[in-house]
Structure formats: structure tokens, C-alpha cells
Amino acid sequence: MDSIRLRPLSRLFLVLSLWIVSVGSSFAQGTAADPSKAGVAPGATAAAAPAAAAGAPTGDAAAIAAGDALFKGNCAQCHAVNEVVVGPALAGITKRRPMSWIIPWVKNSSKLVASGDEYAVKIFNQYQKQQMPSFQLSDAEITSIIAYTTSQEGVKGKEPSNDNSPKAEGDPTATSGGDAADGGKAMNILLIVLVVVLIVLVVTLVIIANIMKDVLRGRKDLDGRDMEVIDQRFDFSKIYKSTAVRGIVGTVFVLAVLYETIQGAMGVGLQQGYQPTQPIAFSHKLHAGEHQINCAYCHTSVYKSKSANIPSPNICMNCHSQIKTESPEIKKIYRAIERKQPIQWVRIHNLPDLAYFNHSQHTQVGGIECQTCHGPIQNMEVVYQYSPLTMGWCINCHRETPLNTKGNGYYDNLVKLHDSENGAVPFTVSSNGGTECSKCHY
Amino acid sequence: MQESPKYWKGIEELENSPEFVKNALTEFADFLPVKESHGTSDATVAPRRDFLKLMGFGLAAATLASCETPIKKAIPYLNKPEEVDPGIANFYASTYFNGQDYNSVLVKTREGRPIKLEGNPESPITRGGLSARAQAAVLSLYDGGRLQHFAKKGAKIDKDQLDQEVRNALAGAGRIAIVSHTIISPSTKKVIAEFAGRFAGTEHVMYDVNSASGLLRANGGVLPAYDFSKADTIVSFDADFLGTWLSPVEFARQYVTNRKVSSEKRSMSRHYQFETNLSLTGSNADVREPLKPSELGEAVLAVYNAVVGGGSASAYTDKSKKVAAAAAALQKAGSRGLVVSGSNDPAIQTLVAAINQKLGSAAVDVAAPSMIRQGDDAKMSSLLKAIGAGQVGAVIFYNANPVFDHPMGADLAAALKAGKVRTTISLNDRLDETGELCTYAAPDHHFLESWNDYEPKRGYLSLAQPVITPLFATRQAQDSLLTWAGNPTTYYNYLRTQWKGVLGGDFNKAWDKAVHDGVALGSAAPAAPAQAAPALDVNAAISAIKSAPKPSGIELAIYEKVGLGSGTDANNPWLQELPDPVTKATWGNYVTVPRAYAMAQKWEQGDVVKVSANGKSVELPVLIQPGQAIGTIGIALGYGRTKAGKVGNDRGANVLPLAQMRNDAILYTNSVTLAATGTTEPIAQTQTHHTIMDRKPVVQEATLAQYIKDPKEVTEYETISTPDGPQKPNKVSLWQDYEYKNHHWGMAIDLNSCIGCGSCVVGCQAENNVAVVGKQEVINRREMHWMRIDRYYSSATHKSDFEEKGKLATYAAMEDPSENPQVIFQPMMCQHCNHAPCETVCPVLATTHSSEGLNQMTYNRCVGTRYCANNCPYKVRRFNWFSYYTNEKFETVNGHMFTDLGRMVLNPDVTVRARGVMEKCSLCVQRIQLGKLEAKKQKRRPKDGEIVSACAQSCPTQAIVFGDMRDPESRISQLLRREDGERAFHVLDAINVQPNITYLTKIRNTESSEFNA
């Protein structure tokens, strides 16, 4: 009998605890989804997608591929195909000038300017008398670069409509993040509905119980013991004194404290959001955002080395020997050069020494945008650490990101093997061994 | 009569001494080293204090961890050089020559600092090989023991002031001597000649620590160039040509060309070695006989009589069948025969030259002679006498340290101290034994900071270029000499001017190419003086040999060690810790004595004995050496430095004073008396450490005769009994096999080509930031080398003997071969097992298998249980017992890790391991990753040979082949296909751990009877 009578109470409690748990977990889900949601935003600017060339019909594919690499290594610092960066946009260059002019220009532009070539002088003056460095490239290499730029003409405009472009594939955080966010939303609605239904149920039950009590009180054939039961008042102190309640509340409290402690402890050494003041107020928003200067113009080795390279003042001087020379911040650079004291930037992204990270693996081979890890750098007045840079974060991306295998002879056989055995599953970095220890630790 | 050699790693194992048994059972020195830091006095108090300390540390650590992370700076170049990109290594060609062996090198620099030397494959002489000493030379650049400024009487002095004083002093000095080791730089010689032109009365005296003056005299002043690949029969009389004699890297490559076998080429050269100490070369010989130094002449004479015939009869061939066999083999080989001798006795060398001439040996070339030994013992000793007599006004020591490394060094030191020479100048890189006795010190640059040229062999040139701005306020020696001679040109310009006469065509272009390649053909020196008549004619030589005094008592043979050489690089801890290929001893020298003599004297290993001769003596511990000639002992030179620096000081004793000067030539032998001192000093040997379980076959060998008969019979493959009959072990397995889709890295090591030189050991150490642990820790069996070379002595047993002679007699007989055992070398490193026993026992998954066949070790996950090391059948895992780079205990041995200067040598791509973690060979995973990345960037598969482990790269004989076994066209795949079922075997195949390292059975070109001798 007792147990039956207690049922409404215990049910109420069950409902309450369920509600707490569900709200809590939806919060947790919300926070977990956050970074991936934010990950949707970046990834739209700068370097052209390497494999997009495959879609363009012009030119020999091999030459274009070679040109792609050469372009990134040598030209991309100053030129883009469809827009003016430091030097002119290269779209339509074959229509403007013949190859017989382009080749000597690339090899030694100053010689051409000095020789008084009309077009050369014009273009030299047009671009702030900024001399294009000479390149030790062969004729064939220059031709392949031009083949590449020709193939890229107007590509940028097409890109958003091209759903199957590798770029979309290459940005898995977007899709998977979106999925997670959508799933989370549906779950939230479901939970809210559930909670409302349960609350209605509880209220209804309480009302029914009161009505029943009233009915029973109206009956005269009840003995004293029954009356006692009916008149029993709901005693809150009983809840307070109940060992079960105390136990559960205590456990929940301990778990919460423990969770917070662990979260706090895991956060020790994490620098996500770290935004130190730099010795020179350099604005990425101005350079990378408004002026659209390619990242690799300053971070010269980002496509070829493990380190992206913080630019040395001589790179700043390429432009600032003429531009904004009076700015107090620029004067700091002059001072550094005069005093022969290198500029001591504060390092923001600090990986532990035990982890090996290589930029070129991700940028050149993987085709990952800078923003994928560094966030909306083009909007940052002062740079901050966007990603947590934890091992979990690395591993997660390696698990989800499909390999950028298109047009890369290294992967040809691997893709075939993968497709024949496991075609349904995407060929991710981890399925090629990208989560093994000695890929990053040695 | 199936032969089955019994292998043993050292005397202890052969005798099964109680200590050996104890060590073999425990395997690890298993006590925790925490208490080592406490003295005995507070031992009882320590635990409580430790507890409190730990508590305090824990609190502090927790507080610290919750504090803000320190601010790190990122400092770019002020003006970035175009060719330097952070994170990308640049390679520059250069040359290593330290007065001993010549190596053409590529210097790997990162962010402008040299971090590793690699062999230059363009060099026609060293062909991409590199000696252990050259490997280690990069560390000497960062040696804090170098003199960092100009000095007068040890005190710092301004450069200009020193120049002024020196010029004044030299002007009125009268007789001036420049003392150096062999100089093979044509331009440097020109500088010295110009200096001599400015100061009349200047003479340049060269001497060599391990002199070849006798060889030079016997060949009329030229050093023949040898080509061992052109010899089918090699007879060596005490010439350690694979280890220390003349040009070991070059010789090793040539030697092995003729010794590599395959089922298509079932032939190889035969190598006879007659020597006193068991040398690296003797260890590789097919036929070896120990003989006393005093018997060497007779033995050569016996061969001379047999081959040339003219001389009077010798009784020696009757005494030694092996000498007779060698003589017969030489006669048969004709022009494909070669005799070499390491003796410095002109008489012996005269006979050797006569034999080669008679044979018409194609392997000897006097037309394009070698230049790498030019020291003249007679000139040097007369100079030293003149100095002693006070006849010399000024001496310049140019990277020469005769006080230490010349037998008459003590006399020189006394003369210098007594002020017999008015002006003394040292150009040495440090205030060494000679330098500190000089008035002026104008330290030379390290070779990695210098421009220079070299001509190791006539017609073959080589360049050195600076790869880093000078670290200290030093000046290149040539610049110093030019300055003093009043020539204002820099040595760089001087060098270029010299080379204008050498390189034809567009000079700038040709010069750039020569600097880029590091080597060039042509000769920069003035035309070679024609070969003069030999100093001795044959008859005089024969009578000199016959009349040579017969020494009484024990004979001492002084030798050079493969690692430390002449002792110039004594302050280099990598070389000090490199185990000697044969004795496997590190850190110091010792007296090698034959076992019988030690037993007769009741000496045990480590007993210190006093060795006396010439009225001088050294005290050194005894090392019982199988293969040492009866009645002789051996001591290595190059040890006992007192002014080398923290690492090199007081390691062992200097034995050179015990050498004798006869007819103005240094003889590295003498009769000595020995006396026990009653003290003991342990010798740090790696020999019996990491004992492999007593299972066979670990190492396999066969004779050429067996190989010719049937290549499929030379290797013994174990089988496992199953219900379906005997099966290969890998047919029976509990484990699932890995499937390698992308790469499958593996290594094949040809035991036939491995000569045990140890170059790979140092190469690995440099590449992988392996710590140096010092003598005591080697004794504690805690050395850290990822790669070791196991050396086994073998005595043969005949299975039938057990039945015929009985067990006891057979075992007793087996002890005898230790008088002259066969030696076999086996490089051993992590075998990267596909069914790795270490992987299954790690509780934290710190060691796992990769999809490319590597056994990965993750340091930051390791908690130091050492289960993996315990479970490893190959004993290749190394535990970090200490913080080798912060614990003051290691400051004298691993000192370079304690300073920012020394740490510049670290490879930035490889983690420096912390205390408490396990480490082991990673198969140079950093190189694999880099090679794959470069291929991916170029959108292609990696090419075979692009990715090479450091050991395979440094191997002078190409015994190690590294590559992708998934690529059917790779060298390793082809090799393994070819050798499958013939010579290819896995160590401990029966336990079925399926290693990715394959060994190829060693083939010896011996008669069956000699094989067992």
C-alpha cells in the first residue's frame, strides 16, 4: 500500500531529475557545437583551391598542375589571378601581352624596364614603382604558370555554385558541424515538448489526487486509519530528510564539482582566445582583410616549410618603404632596422615541443585554408588564438577530414584501394594512418 | 661434420663467470637510482625528507601549473637571407680532414646552424660514406673547451696587439719552425711557403701521430694509393685498413665491393691478416693469425721469399701454415694480389713494396699517389732535438699538439718550459698540452667555420666552406699566417686565386660548381716531385730485418682506436662513448692481454697493471682480449689527455712515451715489463650488456665453399612442429597480420658487408639526439645508443665431436679457440616487429604499431613501467634513468647539453627525451615523414633512395639498405626477393615476432678447416 501511495511523489521526483539532466545535457551539447558552428564562417578567401584547376578545360593538365605549385611557391605572394594584390591580376595576361614578352619580364623585369619597353615602364609606374623580383625559372616553367593562371580565370566567381568542388569537401567541419548543430536543435525542441508534457501531466495528476481526496473525505464509511491516510499532508521535511534524496543531491553536487574541476584542470595551459598585445600594432584586418594581401606574401614559407615564418622587416619594407612612412607604428620597424634589433613578437600559437606540426602538409598538400585553424584572421585587428590547439582538436579534424587526394599522384593507388574495399566511407586522414602516434610525436 | 659455431660475446660468457650469470639473469640494473644522490650519512633520514620534499614539490608544481603560462617570443630575422627558411634544412658541401682520415661531407644546417654531417655521394673517394670520427666532428664545433679569444700566456689579448708582437718577434727570430700534422691543403701549403718567403729560415715540419713515414721512405717519398676492389687476395701485415690505416672509409668501400655476394656472383676476395692486436680489420679477415711485432719482419720476409724468390730461405713458412698459404694465394692471384703493412719500419715496407711490384699488383697506384700521410719522423725528431738544444728562435704549432701526441713530447714540454724557444705561438683550437706552454695563442676556426681546399689524392680536389659565422673571436690559421707575413688578402681570396689556375673555363661558374659539389677534379699543387729511389734497397731491408734486435719479454703494440683516433677529438663525448668495435669498451684505454697470460699472472679483467719501458710507465686496467698474440699486449694511443677539456681530460693514460724511436722512425712497439699494482679499475664495456637470449640462430654465417655449392643451404631456418608437419614459424600465429597499404618500411643488413666500424652508431646519435651517459652509467648498463653493433666471437664445435671425444673434452677444447676466435659483427637496433612483444605489454599504449610497419614510441605517453624493455627479445629499448641534460652528475660527460652553445647541435625535429621514459630506434621516422611530405607536395610517390635512415646513409660499405618493402621496384624489395630462402633471415625467427629488419648471412672465404681454427 505504502509504495502505491508514494508513487505520485516519486514520479514527481523522477520528472524533476529528468528535466534537470536533459536541460543540462542540452547545454553541454550547445557548447560542444559552438566551435564547429563558428567553423562555418571562415574558409572563403585567399589562396585558390588547388584542385579546382581540374574543372577548367584549358591547357594541359600536367602543365597546370606544375604551374599551380610554381605559382604558389613564387607568384602568389604578390599576384592573384582575378584580383589586384601587390602586382596586377594575371587574368587575361595572355591577351594583354605575348609569351615572348612575359618570359623575359618574369626572368628579369628590371632589365626590361631599363631597356625602355613601353608597356614595362607603364606597368612599373602604375604599381608604385614596385620592382618585380627576377625569377630563375625556365621557359617551360613560366609557360606552365601562365597555363595555370589561364585555367583559373574567373574561377572565383564560379566557385560558390560549384557544389562538388573539392573545397566543399575539404571543409568537413562545415558540413559535419552543421549536422551536429541541426541535430542539437531538433533534440532541444523535443526535450522542451517533453518537459511541457510532463509538467502538464504532473499538474493533472495533482489535481486528480486532490479531487479523489475530496471524494474520499465525503464518504462516511471510512475508519480512522483510512482518514489518517487521506488527511496526511505533504511533508516537505520528509524530502529533505529522505536518504535517497540526500544521496542523489549529494552525488549530483559532487559530480558537478568534479566535472568543473576536471574541466578547469584540462584548461590549464590552454590558450584559446589568447590575445596578447604585440610590440607593433599590426592589423591583419587591414592587410589580409581590406587589402586582400595573400597570407603567403608575408608568411613566406607557409606552403613549403613546417614553420609559416613570421615576416622579417625587409618584407615589410617592400611596401612600407613608400607607404605610410610617417605612421608611428611603421617607424618602430625603421627603428628596429636601424638598431639592428629584431622585432620581438609575442608568440600566440604555442604547440608543445613534443608535438610536430607542419604547415606545408596542411596548406600545400591538404589544401586547408588558413582560417580553418586560425579563424577569421582577416577580421582580426589584433590576432588571438582561435582554436584550442589541443590533441583532441587535432585528432577530431583528422578523423573527419577527407584527404585532399585529387590530382595528387601520391594517393592514386590508395584511393583506388580504399574505394574498392570501403567506398561508402570517406577516405579520411585517419583512415590513411593520420591519427597514429608517430605522425606527430617523435 | 656439420659445423655449428658456438658464439660468445666475451670471456665472461665463455667462462660463465658468476658475475656474468647474475647479469644475464637480471638483464637490467633494476634498482631505482633516486638514492644515488644521497651520501650514506643521511641514508636513514632521507625517506622522510624525500617525502616532505615531494610534498613541497607537489604543492609548488600545482601552484605553478595554475599560474599563467610564460610569454614566449617569436623573433624573426631582421633581414631574412633568401636561402634560409625556418624549418627547412640546407645542405652545404664541405670537407673533413683532421690530420687522420679524409671525408667529403655534406653539412646539414637548420636556421643557419650545422646539426649533422653526412657523406657526400659526389666524392669519388669516400662515395657518401663517413667515418665515426667525421660524424662526430659537428659536435666539436660547439665545444665550449675551445679557446674563445686570442691569448698571451693564457690571458686575453687584443688581436692587433698580438699581431704586432708576433711580427716583431718573428722578424728577429732566426730559425722558425711551423709544426703541423699532415696538411693536404695545396693553398695552405702555398700560404706557408709565402710565410717562409717572408721570414727566411722558416721550415715546415709535418709529423703524424700514427706515422706512415716508413711507408713513405720505402716508396721513395710517395704514398701509394690503394684500391682494394682490384685485389682478390689481400694480405695485410698489421695494417688496420678498415679501421684506422690511411683512408679507412675509402678502403672499406673498395674492400666490400669485392666481398658482396649473391647467387649470381658467388665469389669474393680472400683476406689474410697477420697482426698483434685483434683489430677491426683482423676481425673481418677470412684468415687471421696473431703474431708478435718482432715476428712481423720475418713473416713478410717469408712471403717475399716465396713470391719474389730471390732472398735467402726463411724458416717462417714452416712455422706458420697460414703465412705459407698467404704466399701461395698471392702467387696465384698475380696482379690481383695485394700486400699491405701498417708497420712504420722502412725495411718491412720496402719488402712489401717489392712483393707488390713483383706481383704487378693492380691495386697499388704510385702515379696518382695518396697525400694523406706526409709526416717525416726524421725531420720531426731532429727539429725536437734542435728545440731542446735551443737552436730554434720561434715555433708555430699549427693544430699540432706534439707535447701530447709525439713520443718525445716530454722533452719538448721541458724545452718549452725552460724557455729554449724565445717565441712560441699556438694556432691550436684550444689551450691544449702544447698550447698552454706557448706564449701566444691565435686559435684557428673550426673547419665548419673556414674556407679551405684539400687534395687527398693527386688529381682529386675538395673544398671546405664555412657554414656558420665564427662562434668565437678566432681567426683562421691561414689568415693569421698571411697577416704575419704581411699579405693583406683574406684567405678566401687567396684560395680563389689559387683555384683560378685549376679550374678551366668560366672561373666564377666553375668555382660555384666546385663549392656546390664540394669536390673537383684537377690538381692545385705544383707538379708532384718525381718518385725518388727508395731509401733502402731490398737487400739492405732483408739484412735490417734479420739483424733487428730480438726483444725479450712481453712486447707492446700501440694501436689507434677507431673512435678516438689520435686523441685530437678527445673532448668529444660521442667518440668517448662509442664502443670500440672489438673490445666494446668506452671511456678510456686499457691493456689488452691474451687470456693465457692473464690466467698465468692470475689477473682478472679490470686489475690495474703498470707497464714500463724507456724508463717510463703507464698504469692501466687489464682487458682480456681473445685474439691477442701470445707474449704481447696492446694499448691504444690518443688517451690520457690532460688539457683537452672537461670530457677528454684524464681518461686513460698516454702510451706514446712507451714507443721507441729507432733510426729516426717511430716504432709503435717496444718490449715492456708488467707489474700488478693491486688496484682495480672497472672498464666500461658494453660487451655483455643486453645479452640476447641464448637462442640460435641470432647470427648466421657460412663458408664461401658452402655458398658456391648451394646458396639455399647456407642459412638455417627454424621450423615449428605442427600437426601438419614442420612449418615456418610465421605459419603458426596467434596474432592477426597487419595489412600495409601505403608503405612498409624495412631494412636489410648484409652481415657480409658490415665491417663493424661504428659509423652508424654515431650517425644515429647525431640524428636522434641520443644522450651521452658517461663511464659509470655504461658500467651500470644504462647506455642510451639506439643502435649498437653486437660483436660475437665464435668457436666452432663439431656435432660429431660430442660423440667421438665426449662432452667434457669437447667443451674443454672449445675454450682454446678464444686464443684466435672468428669475429662477427651484427648491427642491432629495434627490429620493428610486426608481432611486437613490447606493444602488447604496454599498459598505457605508449608503444604501438603504425600502418607503415613502424613500431612507434610515444614519449609523452610513456609512464616508465619498462615492461616493454623486459619483453623485448632483442634488448634494444633504452630507459632514461636520468635527466641527462640537467643532472649535474652528467655535466662532465654530456656537457654540451648543459649550455645553449652545445644544444645548438640538437636535431630540432626530434624530441629530447625526459627522465623516466623509454626510447628506442624509430627507423628515423622524422626522415620518413619529411620524405613523404616532399613527395606529396610534388604530387608523386616517394622515389626509392630518397628516404634513408641515418645509419644506412652513413654506412661506408652500404651494408644497410633501407626502403619501402611495398614498392616492388625498391632496392630492398629486390634484395629481399633475391635473397629469400638463401641468405635472408630474421634474428630469433622461431619466436615469430616477424621483424621488419632482415639480415643476410655472412659468408667467409675460408677453407673449412680454417673456419674452425
CATH T-level fold name of the largest domain in chain B: Alpha-Beta Plaits
CATH architecture of the largest domain in chain B: 2-Layer Sandwich
Number of helical segments of chain A? Answer: 21
User: Multimeric state of these chains?
Assistant: heterodimer
Q: In DSSP terms, counting alpha (H) and pi (I) runs of 4 or more, how many helices of chain B? A: 34
Sheet of most strands of chain B: 7 strands, mixed
Distance between the termini of chain A: 68 Å
Gyration radius from CA atoms of chain A, angstroms:
33 Å
Structural class, from secondary structure content of chain B?
Answer: alpha/beta
What spatial order of strands do you see in the largest sheet of chain B?
Answer: 7-6-18-17-16-8-9
Number of domains of chain B: 4
What top-tier CATH class of the largest domain in chain B fits best?
Alpha Beta
Note down, in words, how this protein is organized.
The complex is a heterodimer of chains A (442) and B (1013). Chain A folds into three domains: 2-40 and 172-267, no CATH class; 50-164, Cytochrome c-like domain (Cytochrome Bc1 Complex, Chain D, domain 2); 284-310 and 345-439, no CATH class. Helix content of chain A is 57%, strand content 0%. Chain A contains 21 helices and one strand. Chain A has helices at residues 2-38, 61-75, 93-96, 99-107, 109-114, 118-126, 139-152, 155-158, 166-169, 172-218, 224-231, 236-241, 243-267, 284-290, 295-298, 313-320, 328-339, 359-365, 370-374, 391-400, 412-422, and one strand spanning 345-346. In chain A, helix 1 (2-38) packs antiparallel against helix 10 (172-218) and helix 2 (61-75) packs across helix 7 (139-152). Chain A is elongated, with a radius of gyration of 33 Å. Chain B folds into four domains: 3-14 and 690-1008, Alpha-Beta Plaits (2-Layer Sandwich), CATH 3.30.70.20; 151-211 and 375-517, Rossmann fold (3-Layer(aba) Sandwich); 213-370, Dimethylsulfoxide Reductase, domain 2 (3-Layer(aba) Sandwich); 549-685, Barwin-like endoglucanases, CATH 2.40.40. In chain B, helix 6 (186-198) packs parallel to helix 17, helix 10 crosses helix 12 (321-333) and helix 13 (346-359) crosses helix 20 (538-547). The model of chain B is unreliable at 37-44 and 689-695 (pLDDT under 50). Chains A and B meet through helix 16, strand 1 and helix 18 of A and strand 2 and helix 31 of B. Strand 1 (345-346) of chain A pairs antiparallel with strand 2 (73-74) of chain B, so a sheet runs across the interface. Chain A: It comes from Hymenobacter metallilatus. Chain A: Residues 62-153 form the Cytochrome c domain. Chain A: This is C-type cytochrome.
